[in-house]
Amino acid sequence: MSATGMLSPGSPIEHSRAAAPQLFVVVDTEEEFDWSAPFARTNTSVRAMRQVHRGQRLFDEYGLRPTYVVDYAVAANPEGYQPLLEIVRDARCEVGAHLHPWINPPHDEPVNRANSFTCNLPVALQRAKLAVLCDTIAASFGRRPVTFKAGRYGLTDATAMLLEEAGFEIDNSVCPRFDFSSEGGPSFRRFDAQPFLLPPSRRVLEVPCTVEYVGRLPLTVAERLHRWASHSALQRLGAHGVLSRLQLVNRIMLSPEGNSFDEMRILVRTLVSRGIRTFTMSFHSPSLEPGHTPYVRTEADLGRFLDRIKRFCDFFFGDLSGAASTVSRFRASVVPTAECSS
After folding, report:
1. Parallel, antiparallel, or unpaired for β 94-99 and 147-150?
2. Nearest to 73 by CA among 30, 38, 39
3. Is residue 6 part of a domain?
């Protein structure tokens, strides 16, 4: 469990089953670093941002306006933010905030795994880091962010209150069905992909990552079996892969990182059948250049990565007759009604 508690469930946003599915894109726009190495304040290179157009060209093709949630390394470095400026000026994207506390001033905490979750820091330090990040984004992009995503999904009630205090309207930090408590982070085991209004004021809209268990088993059984297979010894034996091949249970995120097109398609079809109508595709900006993430090591990997995005968009806008949208547009359509009913 996180040192500062957990995130309370909020008021869900209900959708008509007749509504068209909506697709959002949220890109964790950040520095390159070795994911297997310890966290370090010196990892601030943002050279991979020169390749951001590789994803943007695809989004333009489908009328998608991604939300680039940028962290301090990107917002503070011209090499990081300049590749986005033309896209911002042409209104082809939105810019939000992404907090990696280990590289975001002020540097008043030890750098370690527990402190990589923003929610584990003292409230005053969280507030200070948010202020620096927002001011830096405003200076680089000419506007303050209203969308937030915590690095490593480090959100609890205390952090959510700080977001409202700082003027944020949308959060994308909840990662349903994941439990980070073994690393000192929050657990989102009991959350699903349904958007909801964060308590207590219901002014910040939570649009979770799109994650769910799929397979033949009932949800409660699927979760228990997946958690059993997550024990380190069973992971080394490939237990998750066995359960997936047997079509018993597979935890899938709507992301081209580590998920096949078929998995993303099955995930969305499953959630549509359960009444979900909003979907968030997410990935990390360094995946647009080979060699920075485990998902894209070579040019061939990059080609397959982009092809997965394209095939998914063809499916979503073709087979599902879905609509391209943004998290901010979605909030504008639902929050006034939700607030009036409270």
Report:
1. parallel
2. 30
3. no
- Tell me the residue ranges of DSSP E strands in the chain: 11-12, 22-29, 67-70, 94-99, 147-150, 170-171, 196-197, 205-206, 211-214, 250-253, 278-284, 323-324
Q: How confident is the model at residue 323 (pLDDT cuts 50, 70, 90)?
A: very high
User: Does the pLDDT of residue 252 top 60, yes or no?
Assistant: yes
For the cut 90, the answer to whether the pLDDT of residue 30 exceeds it is yes
Distances, alpha carbon 109 to alpha carbons 101, 112, 168, 173, in Å: 9, 9, 24, 22
- In this prediction, residue 242 carries a pLDDT of 65
Domain at 322, CATH number: 3.20.20.370
With respect to residue 215, please indicate whether it lies within any of the assigned structural domains: no
- Distance between alpha carbon 36 and the CA centroid of its chain, in Å? 20
pTM of the model: 0.93
* More confidently predicted of 134 and 182: 134
Averaged pLDDT, 233-260:
79
d(CA 211, CA 238): 21
Residue 8 lies in a domain: no
Give kind and range of the element (H or E) at residue 333.
helix 327-340
Q: Which range marks the domain in which residue 49 is found?
A: 19-210+277-340
3-state secondary structure at position 111: coil
Query: How many domains does the structure of the chain reveal?
Result: 1
What tokens were used for 9?
């469930």
Per-chain mean pLDDT for the chain: 92
